[in-house]
Amino acid sequence: MAKKQETAFVCTDCGADFSRWLGQCSVCKEWNTVKEVRLGRSPAGRHSTGYSGKHSMVQLLSEVDRSRAERISTGIAEFDRVLGQGIVCGSVVLIGGAPGAGKSTLLLQALAKGSVSGIPVLYVSGEESPQQIAERADRLELPAGNIKMLAETSVEEICKVMNKEEPQVVVIDSIQVVHSMSSESAPGSISQVRESAAILTRYAKETNTSIFMVGHVTKDHSLAGPMTLSHIVDAQVVLSSTDDARYRILRADKNRFGSVGELGFFAMTDRGLKEVKNPSAMFLSRSGTPASGSAVTVVWEGTRPLLVEIQALVTECQSGNPRRLAVGMDQNRIAMLLAVLAKHGGLATASDEVYVNVVGGIRVYETSSDLAAMVGIVSSLQDRVIPHDSLFFGEIGLSGEIRPVANGEARLKEAAKHGFRRAVIPKANAPRQPVKSLEIVAVGSLVEALEALY
Fold first, then answer.
1. pLDDT in tens for each of the 454 residues of the chain?
2. For residues 77 and 94, is the Cβ–Cβ distance under 8 A?
3. What CA–CA distance (Å, rounded) separates 95 from 113?
4. DSSP label at 75?
5. How much of the chain is helix, strand and coil, in % rounded to 5?
6. How far, in Å, CA of 260 to CA of 256, rounded?
7. How far apart are CA 26 and CA 10, in angstroms?
8. Could you give the number of structural domains in the chain?
9. Which of 276, 307, 336 is the last residue in one of the domains?
10. Spatial contact of 97 and 222, defined as CB atoms under 8 Å apart
11. Residue 390: CATH number of its domain
């Protein structure tokens, strides 16, 4: 009698395992995410080395080799910035994005630049034919003479080819179509993705090969597959588009060798993705006619400041239930700022509808944008225009105080570089030395900020 195939029930969102099927995951509380998977049989006698690619051994932490990891430049400065100033040898990077975002284009451009520098590269395609990729390279006018191609979906065969060719950088496009013969599940299933990613990660660590794995995204723009996939990779980056279809933003959601939250900016052209050298200018394309409700702030993204425009609209409510809507900011924080404005600023908006939008499609996670959002709301409420050369940043507390933010001086220098002449900032962020051509107005409370608004 054939041995019964062992199965497990795994949540596709959080990766939790269960002994039976559940309608709701008891760990992440999501509904209809628990799926049945068949467990693959490991070859007899195979000794697992873990994701690090090394056998288990006990050693003193002080004796561990702490030499800095070697890095390879992709030749694309914005890509290098997101990765942490280059590709770390032996690292595994998972890159995701919606269909048509430009994932394959960006990686093909990076391989082309690397191959010109003499780096051995390999592009493994499981979705497109070599002819399609060659046509894309011709269309982008990329030097493809040294890029090696492989159309294969078996992870065992891919590892055999990599052992033979010994590439330094490999692209797997995509991990969802790669399968392992040690697992009997269908390609794309949770167990297949997990097993294939584990094999590739071990190979990368054992041979010091850098591997990029392209991942599909779900309808809510999160990376598809088990959470194990995010845990075992060294870096996870997502390429997304802005409200303006010409631009793309590359964000690092996880990075063991660099800053988390680092952003890279690109423009989509007929020659592929091109770097945006001055992203602040991309988000500051303001209209020539000044309007009320518009305020500029400077946020800190990764390792650099970024100027963004925040627009607010306060209008009389035509129904009995005023709306509070925020796009690009936390809606709960806007509600809190409106409460502080009513309590400590004397300006109530309980009967008005309030809309706040971050221009350009970028999402602001920092609290340093509190002051700019607040003055934008006040400007729209009073229908008074804020001067175009004014800038605001600072966190607002529940007692109406203006709290300092990190990297204040670097933010001011970025503002001065873009022609701003006046900055309303927290007192604790006031620079010791004056910033050239920039008037600093340091405030300690919401009342002081409103007095300095115009």
1. 444 456 778 777 666 778 788 888 887 788 888 877 665 544 433 444 455 656 667 888 888 777 767 899 999 999 999 999 899 999 999 999 888 889 999 999 999 999 999 999 999 999 899 999 999 999 999 998 899 999 999 999 999 999 999 999 999 998 989 999 887 777 777 788 888 999 999 999 999 999 999 988 776 667 766 677 888 899 999 998 776 678 898 999 899 998 888 889 999 998 899 998 888 877 776 666 778 999 999 999 888 899 999 999 999 988 778 899 999 999 999 999 999 999 999 998 988 999 999 987 788 988 999 999 999 999 999 999 998 899 999 999 999 999 999 999 999 999 999 999 999 999 999 998 888 889 999 999 999 999 988 7
2. no
3. 18
4. S
5. 30, 30, 45
6. 8
7. 11
8. 3
9. 276
10. no
11. 3.30.230.10
Same domain? For 299 and 440 the reply is: yes
Q: What is the β-pairing status of strands 92-97 and 235-241?
A: parallel
SS3 letters across 136-173 = HHHHCCCCCCCEEEEECCEHHHHHHHHHHHCCCEEEEE
The neighbouring-strand residues paired with 21 are: none
In angstroms, rounded to a whole number, what is the distance separating the alpha carbons of residues 88 and 256? Answer: 10
Q: Which residues are annotated as a binding site?
A: 97-104
pTM strictly above 0.85: no
* The pair of three-digit structure tokens given for residue 393, joined into one six-digit string: 């940043």
Q: The tokens of 270 are what?
A: 């007929």
Cβ atoms of 157 and 151 closer than 8 Å: no
Task: Give the CATH number for residue 161.
Answer: 3.40.50.300
Residue 417, Cβ density class (10 Å: 0-12 exposed, 13-18 middle, ≥19 buried): middle
Q: Which amino acid is at 165?
A: E
Coil, strand or helix: which one is 134? helix
Q: 109 near 94, Cβ under 8 Å?
A: no
Structural domain for 177, as ranges: 70-276
Q: Report the 3 state secondary structure along 269-294.
A: ECCEEEECCCHHHHHCCCCCCCCCCE
Token reading at 191: 């167990």
> How far apart, in whole angstroms, are the C-alpha atoms of residue 174 and residue 124?
8
Helix (H) or strand (E) holding 311: strand 304-316
Cα 232 from Cα 189, distance rounded (Å): 17
**Judgement on whether residues 204 and 114 belong to the same structural domain of the protein:** yes
Annotated binding-site members for ATP: 97-104
Q: Which of 261, 276, 291 is the last residue of a domain?
A: 276
